[in-house]
Amino acid sequence: MNQTASTPHPDPDVIILCGACGGENIRKDAYAEWNAELQQWELSAIFDHTVCDDCGSENSAIEKVVE
């Protein structure tokens, strides 16, 4: 079961890119906790650390406004 958490929507819309290679395959570390009542995983924390799956660069993610 793959669960995602609701997050505030940025204004204006942005995409997250790798500052090193421009790739869009950026990942962040996070913690999830099991909610026995709802029978699903819930995201409980998202950390600052990022990794680009395209080039392996760490902590180089940037936001770019979608026009």
As a percent range, the share of strand residues is over 45%
Cα radius of gyration in angstroms:
14 Å
Q: Work out the helicity level.
A: under 10%
Order of helices and strands: EEEE
The gross shape turns out to be flat
- Secondary-structure class: mainly beta
| Count of spatially separate domains | 1
What do the pLDDT scores average to? 89
The overall strand count is 4
User: Termini, distance in Å?
Assistant: 34 Å
Give the helix tally: 0
Describe the structure.
Helix content is 0%, strand content 49%. The chain has one domain (14-65). With 67 residues, it is mainly β. It has no helices and 4 strands. It has strands spanning 14-18, 26-35, 40-52, 61-65. The strands form 2 sheets. The chain has a two-stranded antiparallel sheet with strand order 1-4. Strands 2-3 form a two-stranded antiparallel sheet.
Write the layout of secondary structure elements.
Elements: E1 14-18, E2 26-35, E3 40-52, E4 61-65
Antiparallel strand pairs: 1-4, 2-3
Short characterization:
The chain is mostly beta strands and about 70 residues long. About 0% of the residues lie in helices and about 50% in strands.
What keyword list fits this structure?
mainly beta; two-stranded antiparallel sheet; two-stranded antiparallel ribbon
